[in-house]
Amino acid sequence: GHYVEANAAAALLTGYSIDELTKMTIRDITAEETMESALYYFNKLKSTGSMSAELKFVHRDGSVRWWTVDAVKLSNDRYLGFSGDITEKKRAEEELLYLSYHDSHTGVYNRRYFSEELKRVDAGDYMPLSIIIGDINGVKLVNDAMGHAEGDRLIAECAKIISACCRDMDALCRTGGDEFSILLPKTDNAEAKDIMKKIQDALIQFDEDNPNG
């Protein structure tokens, strides 16, 4: 796993000089979260003679970067690797994935996520499964009387309050304009009612704290 040669592009990619790199090993710059995966691919390289992967590495400045890594075997103890930085591409992919499953206005999950997650948790490991569905009273009235900006604020505020009452394993989703649904895995009827009561109490408390509407 020792680097024996490096070019100027490798120095630019890693932030280390060529001299520094040739005193280092693959482990020295591999991010801890992909170490196991990196070792798997390195062993694959040794056994098959080639590998191709996307892995995380630590730049000299401490930032974690995504690289493509392609390598081939030259001899029994010598390998040639080609790497490229794809961090911005990965960030764009993560952002697109986030947007595809989240409601852009409230930040909670959307109907698409609800439908797909419902299929996933409708299985033995997540039973009993409970679902809470509710909508916000008076959104149309607020929109008509005060404008859609106020209606949107009301929806976002409700989402924030409901979210604060959910557990880490619960999935709060905006499934309609003023409708929210919550998936509660490993939750029986009694527990679901307790959570629903907690949400209702939190909403009532918010109304009491904001009497001006």
What does this structure look like?
With 213 residues, the protein is α+β, with helices and mostly antiparallel strands. The protein has nine helices and seven strands. Strands 4-6-7-5 form a four-stranded mixed beta sheet, with helices on both faces. The termini are far apart. The longest helix has 21 residues, at 189-209.
Brief synopsis:
The protein is of the alpha+beta class.
Strand order of the largest sheet: 4-6-7-5
Q: Proportion of β residues?
A: 15-25%
- Average pLDDT level: 94
Shape: elongated
What layout of secondary structure does this protein have?
Blueprint: H1 8-14, H2 18-21, H3 26-29, H4 35-48, E1 50-58, E2 64-75, E3 78-85, H5 87-101, E4 109-110, H6 111-121, E5 130-135, H7 139-146, H8 148-165, E6 171-174, E7 179-184, H9 189-209
Parallel strand pairs: 4-6
Antiparallel strand pairs: 1-2, 2-3, 5-7, 6-7
